[in-house]
TrEMBL record:
Residues 7-416 form the Ketosynthase family 3 (KS3) domain. SUPFAM superfamilies: Thiolase-like. Belongs to the thiolase-like superfamily. Beta-ketoacyl-ACP synthases family. It catalyses: a fatty acyl-[ACP] + malonyl-[ACP] + H(+) = a 3-oxoacyl-[ACP] + holo-[ACP] + CO2; (9Z)-hexadecenoyl-[ACP] + malonyl-[ACP] + H(+) = 3-oxo-(11Z)-octadecenoyl-[ACP] + holo-[ACP] + CO2. Its EC number is 2.3.1.179. It comes from the Bacteria. GO terms for cellular component: plasma membrane. This is 3-oxoacyl-[acyl-carrier-protein] synthase 2. It is an enzyme of class 2 (transferase). Involved in the type II fatty acid elongation cycle. Catalyzes the elongation of a wide range of acyl-ACP by the addition of two carbons from malonyl-ACP to an acyl acceptor. Can efficiently catalyze the conversion of palmitoleoyl-ACP (cis-hexadec-9-enoyl-ACP) to cis-vaccenoyl-ACP (cis-octadec-11-enoyl-ACP), an essential step in the thermal regulation of fatty acid composition. Proposed to synthesize NOD factor fatty acyl chain. Involved in the synthesis of a highly unsaturated fatty acid moiety, which forms part of a lipo-oligosaccharide that is responsible for host specificity.
Length: 418
């Protein structure tokens, strides 16, 4: 990093998503605004013996549309998603990677778990067939940094590149770190976000064993994720990716790019409280939100919308509500707060990628997607959660919160370009 370079403004110019709705940002946004659930009974494996039997699967996904089929087979599904998201984001930004100075072009795509499908399938081969049957591609396929590495190979990005692993905050941290790299002069263009593919027998067995997932609504999958509702009983897993093209304002303007919004702030804090439970007092998450408002040079009253972590677990939604009130005071009750996880499921390390995209789209269109399945208000969750129906309103500033096991908090602030 050059010490004497001025802080540069950073904007979002491209979005690529893979979710249970399908591929691409237009399909993603249309379904969110319509309040459509992308959650159904899991089909990729037999869930009969699992307490939680629903999820938001990308059953449509064809990796061969985005990378050589032979290369796709050598990579885990989470890496395939990341390559797809990166290519769609570049197309959306109308940006040819061959026209970017490669040394100034970086990739930060995080994952909370990495190649869980690879871990599961190769472990099975080891125990059933012996060590000689384990794939030579197992290790490079399962490591959590490989999505960033493969994307860089695919698009020729030789700038900053690594994989951030902070559980469900991974995608948010990746975007935040990319923002700082561009702002501080280490890169001109970054692909940043998260990718996850943990809808597997092993993934469900582990999360069900720790009683983190919903078990009460297997017969009505569309209603199973109900953030901030009194009847919530756990999260619903999703899979997919969210990748953003981020670049300096100067770089974007020089090529006549269409700009979604500006990145105004980023904060990373830690609860230092418990490996899985958020801090009941929300001190560190509240501080993260306070930090980004200060960094953006605005006041709490200027924030229009928060895309909450809102996992539909009893503790998260209650404690996140408290953290928002701690950070915003009286202004908290004037904020629009929604969780899109009721529709997309919880994409773990990819959550911050698609939810940052939500913030950018909300600013562009002045539309806030709803919190669906909000039927029975919880006295502990008493903010404006944009219940059940999208809202048209001026969105000048939006924030994205994501929390991860280990006490990791990440908050991003986005604002209209002015």
């Amino acid at each position: 990093m050059s010490g004497d370079i001025d802080k540069r403004r950073v904007v979002i110019t491209g979005i690529g998503t893979v979710t249970s709705y399908g591929d691409g940002v237009d399909t993603f946004w249309e379904n969110l605004l319509a309040g459509k659930s992308g959650i159904s009974r899991v089909e990729s494996f037999d869930v009969t013996d699992y307490p939680s039997q629903v999820g938001a699967e990308c059953l449509h996904f064809d990796a061969g549309k985005y990378m050589d089929p032979k290369e796709a087979r050598r990579n885990d599904r989470y890496t395939q998603f990341a390559v797809a998201g990166a290519r769609m984001a570049l197309d959306d930004a109308n940006l040819d990677p061959e026209k970017i100075e490669s040394d100034r072009f970086g990739v930060l795509i995080g994952s909370g778990i990495g190649g869980m499908i690879t871990i599961q399938t190769q472990s099975r081969r080891l125990y059933e067939m012996g060590p000689r049957k384990v794939s030579p591609f197992m290790i490079p396929s399962l490591i959590a940094n490989i999505a960033s590495g493969v994307v860089a190979i695919e698009v020729g990005a030789r700038g900053p590149n690594f994989g951030i692993v902070s559980a469900c905050a991974s995608g948010t941290h990746s975007i935040g770190e990319a923002f700082q790299m561009i702002r501080d002069g280490e890169a001109d263009v970054m692909l940043a976000g998260g990718s996850e593919a943990a809808i597997t027998e092993l993934g469900y067995a582990g999360f069900c064993s720790m009683k983190a997932m919903s078990t009460s609504y297997n017969d009505a999958p569309e209603t199973a994720s109900r953030p901030f509702d009194k009847g919530r009983d756990g999260f619903i897993m999703g899979e997919g990716t969210g990748v953003l093209v981020m670049e300096t304002l100067e770089h974007a303007q020089a090529r006549g790019a269409t700009i979604y919004c500006e990145v105004g702030g980023y904060s990373a804090t830690c609860d230092a409280y418990h490996i899985t439970s958020p801090d009941p007092e929300g001190k560190a998450l509240g501080a993260a939100m306070t930090n980004v408002v200060k960094e953006a040079g605005i006041t709490a009253d200027d924030v229009s919308y928060i895309n909450a972590h809102g996992t539909s677990t009893p503790y998260n939604d209650k404690f996140e509500t408290g953290a928002i009130k701690k950070a915003f005071g009286e202004a908290a009750h004037k904020l629009a707060v929604s969780s899109t996880k009721g529709m997309t499921g919880h994409l773990l390390g990819a959550a911050g990628g698609i939810e940052s995209a939500v913030c950018a789209l909300a600013i562009r269109d002045n539309k806030i997607p709803p919190t669906i399945n909000y039927k029975d208000p919880d006295p502990d969750c008493d903010l404006d959660y944009v219940p059940n129906t999208m809202r048209e309103t001026e969105v000048n500033v939006a924030m994205c919160n994501n929390l991860g096991f280990g006490g990791h908090n990440a908050t991003l602030l986005f604002k209209k370009l002015g």
